[in-house]
Amino acid sequence: MIPPEQAFCRRCRRALNTHTSSFGLTYTHAIEARGSTVDHRPDPVAVTELNDPLIECDFCSAPGAAWSYRCADQRTTTRTVTARIVGSNDYRDQHHAARTRRVETGDGLTQAWGERWSACPECAELIEARDLLGLISRVVEVLPAKLTRGKRLVQVRGQLHGTYSTVFDTLAPGRGRIEPGHPLGVWPEPPASTA
Ligand SMILES: [Zn+2]
Ligand SMILES: [Zn+2]
Q1: Opening angle at CA 104, ends 100 and 110, nearest 5
Q2: Using one digit for the tens of pLDDT, what is the confidence trace for 10-65?
Q3: Per-domain boundaries in the chain
Q4: How far is the CA of 124 from the centre of ligand 2 (A)?
Q5: Which of 9, 28, 48, 180 lies in the 20 to 30 Å Cα band around 17?
Q6: Residue 9 C-alpha to ligand 2 middle, in angstroms?
Q7: Contacts by 175-181 with C-beta closer than 8 Å and gap 24+?
């Protein structure tokens, strides 16, 4: 299995979300969860196998994420996903001619978030300041109106609050700088032992 934070699409070189459901392991484009549409099915590959991945901010989707953070893996359950779902094994078994299994899921689709989050400089500043509400506001601002209209806004803010609280609560010290060829970040060397 590709670690969730490393799952990218071979075709568009953008991040994928990893889900488990009764179909097993499935993938969707991360930008679909933020209201964008994608014209092709995910073709999962580890980001480290891509020459030129598009590392976008996992929070606000801005291009050119600068920092990589580590935290505990978390899983959230989505009630309905209006994204196209394709089983990971279908690609291997059907030579990338996998057909979409379904367009919408019922209850109990679980998303694995992985242990790494990429952040743009602006979101990183809010993370460094542990400004949870500031980060939520920033992310909500860039979501398309269809996701933030009326009652949905409360829902979306609630979901972000839950997910980001876990990120903040379990954040590992330090951060890695994302550079060309280092999609997972270049981390400072741990201090040399004086023993
Ligand atoms: Zn793609
Ligand atoms: Zn951002």
Answers
A1: 100
A2: 999 999 988 887 667 889 898 888 778 899 999 999 999 999 999 999 999 999 89
A3: 4-186
A4: 7
A5: 180
A6: 20
A7: 175/67, 175/68, 175/69, 175/70, 175/124, 176/67, 176/68, 177/66, 177/67, 177/68, 178/55, 178/65, 178/66, 178/67, 178/68, 178/118
